[in-house]
Design a protein that fits this description.
With about 190 residues, the chain is mostly helical. It has helices spanning about 10-25, 30-40, 45-60, 60-75, 80-90, 95-110, 115-125, 130-145, 150-160, 165-170, 175-190.
């Protein structure tokens, strides 16, 4: 990818794919630069603005991130993703924990994603808000059942109270639970077709 002059490439899908490759390689500056070529060709792309904001945050360019974030809010004022971008920017700036909690609580009212739910539970933990932390860990465990964030929620919850027998079994028999979930997914996919 480093040998190609991406400014001459017109295919937006190709540019966004290359940007993702650079991002996976943690080369956020190149990821941003390639994505900017795509954005120049489609300047109203809110997804591109969202990604440009994220890449700038990851690359430590907070002022630049804030600039893209402002553009994003102008073209997509009702997009709930603006809360995640605001959170990422504030977290990168070392924002006040209460402010970070407020942002993620607003997001959670509209969306319940395991990554951000766990992030909120962790913030509750850091702020000493034990009841909210444990309650949110319980919800993550209930709704998502298995996965990285469920494992983290189980471990976080254990710091405050014992796990239920079924929660302990999830930790002990993690692979067995994951195999069951995959089997159910395969069965569901067969029934759809």
């Amino acid at each position: 990818a480093d040998t190609i002059d991406w400014s001459k490439v017109k295919n937006i899908k190709m540019l966004t794919l290359v940007s993702q490759v650079y991002e996976k390689a943690k080369n956020y500056e190149e990821a941003k630069n390639v994505l900017l070529f795509a954005y120049e060709r489609v300047p109203m792309g809110r997804r591109m603005l969202y990604k440009l904001t994220e890449l700038c945050v990851k690359g430590g360019k907070i002022e630049e991130a804030e600039s893209y974030f402002e553009e994003f809010q102008k073209i997509a004022p009702n997009d709930i993703g603006k809360l995640l971008l605001a959170y990422q920017i504030e977290a990168a700036k070392g924002g006040d924990p209460d402010q970070l909690i407020t942002i993620l609580e607003l997001y959670r009212k509209n969306e319940f994603e395991e990554k951000w739910a766990y992030e909120l539970a962790w913030l509750y933990h850091k702020a000493g808000r034990v009841k909210e932390c444990v309650q949110l860990c319980n919800e993550i465990i209930l709704w998502f059942s298995v996965g990285t964030y469920v494992d983290r929620a189980l471990n976080l919850k254990m710091q405050y109270e014992p796990l239920t027998p079924s929660e302990q079994e999830k930790l002990v028999n993690k692979k067995k639970f994951e195999a069951r979930v995959r089997a159910v997914e395969r069965e569901f996919e067969r029934r759809e077709y």
